[in-house]
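Appendix B, Record 12. Input sequence as logged:
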Amino acid sequence: MRAGPSWPAVAERLLFLTGHLAEARLRRLLDGLTDPGFAWRVQNVGVKVAALMTEPILRRRLRRPLEADRVILPGRAGVDVAALSAEFGVTFMRGPEELADLPAFLGFGAKPADLSRHDTRIFAEIVDAPMLSLDMLASRAAALRAEGADVIDLGCRPGIAFAHLEQAVQRLRTEGHRVSVDSGDPEELRRGARAGADFVFSLTEATLDIAAGTHAVPVLIPRTHGDLDSLMRAAELARARGIACLLDPVLDPIHAGFTASLVRYARLREALPDAELLMGTGNLTELTDADSSGVTALLLGVCSELAIRNVLVVQVSPHTRRTVAEHDLARRIMFAAHENNDLPRGYAGGLLQVHDRRPFTAGVEDLAEQAAAVRDANWRIAVAPDGIHAYNNHRHETGTEALAFFPALDVANDGAHAYYLGTELMKAETAWRLGKRYTQDAQLDWGCAVPVEPRAAHRLAEAGHTLRAKHQDRDDT
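Logged structural output:
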């Protein structure tokens, strides 16, 4: 273990634990921090790879008492930080999984990461509600709420009777959902309001009376499309009658009045600065062949600037299958950025589904250094700006196509290992071509586009370790 200098007199002392392969790079990174505001030491605990740290190893190799205020472990270290904190009397905590993220973890250039708050209500529409049984509606509603929906919108269909509308409203409310009814048929809206719906879409100055005598909040739209004056008259009529309401100037699709509709929202906000507005985003997410995450981010940015605190979300087309979750994250990012008078950049990566802002966690020189330090025949795979790197104690291969590595890997007679390396190299190629982060034995991160399944990540790592077992040097610890 390399001995560190005496601690200088500063507010906090940080001890960073690492392994052989990452030690030099960690020291360079910490040396490069300008005025960090803390003192630091690095301790190599005698394992090759930081993820191989175990609690018994740390108990044997850390001197007591620990002269530190915090001990920073590699993010992949499989140890119980709470147990170690209690045993050593010092706070142990996991750092990021990648060294490249350590400066942000320590507060250098990082933005506040509190995404627990938002001020936008998500209405999630079930567009085919009349054709679904009560059990199916309840199941769909539960799934939408799990993705971030605050209100379940029962979308009626022209020409299709919704015989069980009242039962649907009551069933969902009984299960704890707030419910809205969306129909062009005044009678269906009246039935929904009387059954206990919390909101009804979409009323005008001529049909406002439908909500009378109920607790349903009407969502008001122009009497004729684009007629902002009629919408403001409807808002004034509701105010005079003491009826709370939401105002929706209606967002139009691209090439069907999109820009003009945005202007209407801005004009309405200017005319009625205190009104509660709603934007239906489906005319953009559903009717534009573009990844819905980017469209959603843009529209929620407009909502943030114009204080539009209600959005109606449709999740029907295959390419919008995760748009409720995308709206949920976007509203949190926009709220945090607005609170900080900041750009919506650097708060979370869930809307960066295809590309990452910092895809490469190691440079070509870093990987060359790591490859030179390897002492076993186990293949490591990484991605850098120049392509895919595969290296062990005998070879260091680079390339841009997964299949091109096969002749160099010497696994023609080892089907299990060939299978493992093939899957990892294909993941690496995908990551390199798209500009995404790649980590061996981990899933690619697709943000909100793919729900997180923790067990899947565990199975992937477990399979990787199993398939590499007979090639692994067991002297690491």
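The radius of gyration is 28 Å.
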